[in-house]
């Protein structure tokens, strides 16, 4: 995929920066592992938030949710994980994984507690959330607490999966409010249908709830401003690579 982009010559910038991003990710991994090992004395647990998504593009809804989760749940790190081949979405309509990765990286670059992982986009097989969460659980070790951060829309979807109990065994959910999916409704649904999961799903009021990637893509297509809906760097990236206009 990366070579393809380069050969087409349309995204030499992405290719060049990818090498840098790879180096950066290695450094990040080292840093996380070091930090984790300092906690191994059991003084306090390492709390990791994982946020999976298409991030096409990443926007303030994602960023504010992650920041809020970091604060409320005392997280050490939030790792954004752009999906490679989303099993539940049609791949044709989705921007190249490298673009989505780059935008996510640009969006978190000035926040030392946010990282971006290439785990799913470097995989050649479809990514299932359970596999990703297990991968990070192994990566951080048994003592780490894994929190999976999602919107309330995604939580309801997850609870209808066949083996959702496996997920709840390895992580706790942080469900952030989104329009049309009120926290109360979610609470009632969970309590009614999945009472055993109540202590594994925490609700989070999200102050930037109504923004979505779909909304941003539509606005770009309609030549409307997207200023402040995402970060400035992401906004410029979208224009530079002419994303979402066709
Ligand atoms: P799309 O419109 O393309 O579906 P999206 O805005 O829903 O994009 P995703 O990449 O699908 O973004 O979402 C990744 C995760 O972030 C999901 O768990 C989703 O529920 C959550 N999320 C997205 N936007 C918000 C928001 N404004 N508030 C809270 N959670 C959000
Ligand atoms: Mg979505």
Classify the secondary structure makeup into a structural class.
alpha/beta
Are any ligands bound, and if so which?
A: adenosine-5'-triphosphate, magnesium ion
Q: What is the helix tally?
A: 10
The end-to-end distance, rounded to whole angstroms, is: 21 Å
Task: Give me the CATH superfamily.
Answer: HUPs
What general form does the structure show? Answer: globular
Task: Please give the radius of gyration in angstroms.
Answer: 18 Å
Instruction: Report the sheet-strand fraction.
Output: 5-15%
Portion of residues in helices?
40-55%
Give the rounded overall mean pLDDT. Answer: 83
CATH class category:
Alpha Beta
Structure description:
It is a single chain. By secondary structure, this protein is α/β, with parallel strands linked by helices. It has a single domain (47-240), classed as HUPs (Rossmann fold). It is built from ten helices and six strands; from the N terminus they run H-H-E-H-E-H-E-H-E-H-H-E-H-E-H-H. It has helices spanning 2-7, 12-38, 60-72, 97-108, 129-140, 152-159, 164-170, 183-193, 213-221, 232-240, and strands at residues 47-53, 77-82, 114-116, 145-151, 172-176, 201-204. The protein has a six-stranded parallel sheet, sandwiched between helices. Helix 2 crosses helix 4. The model is unreliable at 1-10 (pLDDT under 50). Residues 53-56, 61-62, 65, 150-151, 153-154, 176, 178, 206, 208-209, 211-214 line the site of adenosine-5'-triphosphate. Adenosine-5'-triphosphate binds next to helix 3, strand 4, helix 6 and helix 9.
